[in-house]
Amino acid sequence: MRRVSRPALQLWFEFASTYSYPAVQRIEALADGPGVGVEWKPFLLGPVFKNQGWNDSPFNLYPAKGRYMWRDLERLCAKYGLPFRRPSVFPRSSLLAARVARTAAAEPWCGDFVRAVFHANFADDRDIASVETVTAIRRPGRALVEAAAAPETKARLRAATERAIALGIFGAPTAVVGDELFWGNDRLEDAVAWAVTAASRAGDRR
Amino acid sequence: MRRVSRPALQLWFEFASTYSYPAVQRIEALADGPGVGVEWKPFLLGPVFKNQGWNDSPFNLYPAKGRYMWRDLERLCAKYGLPFRRPSVFPRSSLLAARVARTAAAEPWCGDFVRAVFHANFADDRDIASVETVTAIRRPGRALVEAAAAPETKARLRAATERAIALGIFGAPTAVVGDELFWGNDRLEDAVAWAVTAASRAGDRR
Q1: β-strands A8-13, A37-42: how paired?
Q2: At the N or C end, where does chain B have fewer CB atoms within 10 A?
Q3: Cβ count near A88 (within 10 Å)
């Protein structure tokens, strides 16, 4: 009997990352049709960039690239029908939101939380580093912040970032399907297609 | 009477640039359908990268990014049905080919020449810096090399590179439509669509 594995991809993202915004908003709509499961993988770009010798976002370090990115993101959001307002602070500290998302990775509300934090940063220009912003998105606030501050949560997020580097991830968003990396919002469609093909091949081998 | 401007885009490219390979091979097929004219704009990335503090390709300077790019390019070429062999030397010196393309910018054979040089570099792993490779693509070789070596050709290519920097170009390929930049092979479809819309708007204003 031919059994087909459920296709799946991991979406590695960083809450401060500009192109992660359209990617997290789009991924489930793209993945749901062909039945591809999405695993949310929050991590921190700071240590990844530090490994490349950068102490800031490359969009700040390389101004021509940064100017282009803001215009490109504006055009892309218009194309996708996503609201967009350029954040007055960039990059924003994503540590708190990433820790909360890390504790929520297996929860049914994880996707909604992730999307709402990105919306706060890139559509409402709100400070996602603040407890008020994060707890307004998901209640009860005290439990959320306590879970985020727990040593095991901090350790898990650090481990996720180390895992990202070990996988060869150098930017966000990156979709991972088996051994294949797909970097950037513009590779999401290819990543979903790859997940479907890979699952079908795995089914054929059984 | 409503008159529609002929839509057009400039394709700024560099012969050593990996993602310029699928872009130059694809652009005319994408542009011809909607009647968008393509202007070939060879330039040199070396001075652009030097402005950003790099003395080599970022794909060599940042190994994780480089490893990803080679695999991504291989996958993209498979998707587009383009032959691909990883060049044994990267980046190759593109000065001679860029000068020839600069002299040919208005010639009907320019597109074929550009595509053949990219094919030599990224499908046949041939040295595009050599006179033999370039003159095998386009004859008569002596006239070609003499025109490429003329002081006015050298000055024109330098001016094109300065113009690219002034336009805000920081990488290749970049499609330019009016004031809009579209960086990367993955933005070609958007650039063509923008050219069509821009020409239609210009027609409406008349």
Answers
A1: parallel
A2: N
A3: 9
The pTM of the full predicted model, rounded to 2 decimals, is: 0.95
Flag whether residue A80 sits within 8 Å of chain B, measured between CB atoms: no
* Pick from A75, A79, A170: CB nearest B65: A170
Rounded to a whole number of angstroms, the CA Rg of chain B reads 17
Task: Give CA–CA dist B112/B118, Å, rounded.
Answer: 10
Strand stretches in chain B, DSSP E? 8-13, 37-42, 174-177, 180-183
| B180: chain A residues, CB-CB within 8 Å | 71, 75
Residue with tokens 């560099």: B14
Q: CB distance from B183 to chain A under 8 Å?
A: yes
Residue in the structure block whose two tokens are 């055009």:
A75
Residue A171 touches partner B, C-beta closer than 8 Å? yes
Three-state helix/strand/coil letters over B143-183: HHHHHHHCHHHHHHHHHHHHHHHHHCCCCCCEEEECCEEEE
The pair of three-digit structure tokens given for residue B52, joined into one six-digit string: 């950003």
Q: Is B71's CB within 8 Å of A171's CB?
A: no
Q: Rounded to whole angstroms, what are the CA distances from B89 to A21, A142, B121, B127, B180?
A: 37, 57, 9, 8, 33
Rg value, chain A, Cα: 17
* Chain B residues within 8 A of A169 when measuring between CB atoms: 64
Contact assessment for residue A178 and residue A167, using Cβ atoms and an 8 Å cutoff = no
Q: Minimal CA–CA distance to A121: which of A108, A137, A100?
A: A137
Edge-to-edge strand order for the sheet containing B174-177?
B37-42, B8-13, B174-177, B180-183
Nearest CA distance, A47 vs chain B (angstrom): 14
**Cβ separation of A64 and B170 shorter than 8 Å?**
yes
Q: How far is A88 from chain B (nearest CA, A)?
A: 22
Residue-wise pLDDT for A40-56, tens only, equals: 999 999 999 999 899 99
Provide the shortest C-alpha distance from residue A62 to chain B (in Å): 7
The answer to whether residue B201 neighbours chain A at the CB level (below 8 Å) is no
Taking only the tens place, the pLDDT of each residue in A118-141 is 999 999 999 999 999 999 999 888
Is the CB of B171 less than 8 angstroms away from the CB of A65? Answer: yes
pLDDT at A3: 57
